Each structure stands twice: as C-alpha cells, then as structure tokens.
Amino acid sequence: MDRGLLEDRKSLFNGISRKIRTRSVTEAMRKVPRERFVPRESRPMAYADVALSIGLGQTISQPYIVALMTEALGLGGGEKVLDLGTGSGYQAAVLAELLPAGSVLSVELIPQLAERARSLLRELGYDNVDVREAGPELGCPEQAPFDAIIVAAAAPRLPEALGEQLAVGGRMVVPVGTLAEQTLVHVLRTEEGISIKMLGPCRFVPLIGPGAFAKT
User: Which ranges in 58-106 belong to alpha helices (H)?
Assistant: First the structure.
C-alpha cells in the first residue's frame, strides 16, 4: 500500500474510532483491505469516508455507515448473519472478521457482482462467507432463522419478510424511506413482536423485490 493510502487509512479509522464505541468493529474494518473492493480507478479514494461507485448502478457504502450498521448488530462472534446486497463484498468481509465461529450468507441480485464478490472473498480467505444470487423472495427464507440481518439497500417500508427470517432475539439494520431520503432502522425481534430504533439519516440504492421497490 502506498504512503498516500496508508495516511488516508490512518485518518479514516482515527475518525471512525471517535464515533464508534465498539472497538472490535473498527479493528475488523482495519483488517479488511478496502482498496481491493473498489474499481482500480477508484483506489486512490479507497479510504475516503465516502460511498464509491462499483459499477452496474451500485456502490460500496461509506465506511462510517458500514461501521454504524455493523456495530448496531451487536455481534458476539458465533452468529449466523444474512447480508442482503453483497455488492463488492466489503460488508461481508467486515462481518466475517467479526464472526470467527459464525457464518455470513450474502445475497446479491446482480449475477456479475455476486460472482466478482465470491471470487474476491475466496481469494482473501473469507471461508465463512457464502455468496448467493438472489432468489424470488427477499432474503433467504430457506436458511432462516438468522441471528442478524444487515441490508445494504433501501426499502420503502420495513420488509415484513425479512423480519420473519429473524430468530427471537435477532437484530436487523435496514435503510427505510423514499428513493431520495432514508433512515437507518434497527429492529429487534422479541417473543412479543419487534421493537424499533432509528439510527439516523442515510442514502442507499433501492432494495428490489417483493415488499420493496419494483425493478425498473
């Protein structure tokens, strides 16, 4: 890694560590080579705290948002996690670092992205990540229940189908709102139903599928 990227990386994680209290999350993100998950022409910006295009109308999320969403899952290391919207595979890699005794099922709608992420994650040694192409239903109901679900695309309302795939005690973080403006929502499933907490504004590409946005 060249000196410029090293300096940017140091600055990025110094900033994130002042906002994110869970040290294991920032340490996991430090271990993941984000420059490998962005297009070659964007690598000088790999450690800027911004979202970047990865082609095909998709993005790799802003690092702070990745940290915020990951922290909100409250992972202990042995959970079974659904990552909806694989994209570049970066979020799945961060989750994998936090789950030495757990697993990540990452689902992607766009076949080219799924294959690219699968290949890179395998090359980097993330053997506890399974990347699959999206099926006709949101999430992966045949593999439910999940201890945690993280959604890297915005839904117009809380996706009921994903809530049903959470185990009791499970947590989900999902952007909810319009195409132009969304809020990160934290969902906890209990014996009585679900409880909801708002984490703040965000901006994501749309979630496509039943109970979400229609494909254009």
Answer: 63-73, 90-98
Whether residue 72 has pLDDT greater than 80: yes
Positions annotated as catalytic residues are: 61
Helices (H) and strands (E) in the chain, counts: 6, 9
CA 77 to CA 199: how far, in whole Å? 23
Global confidence as pTM? 0.95
CA distance 167 to 144: 8
Residues counted in the chain: 216
Q: How far is CA 143 from CA 73, 104, 140, 158, 165, in A?
A: 19, 11, 6, 20, 8
Residue 83 bridge partners (DSSP): 106, 150
118 with 141: CB under 8 angstroms? no
Residue 198 has pLDDT above 70, yes or no: yes
Angle at the Cα of 33 (from 143 to 172), degrees rounded to 5? 35
The pLDDT-based confidence of 151 (bands split at 50, 70, 90) is very high
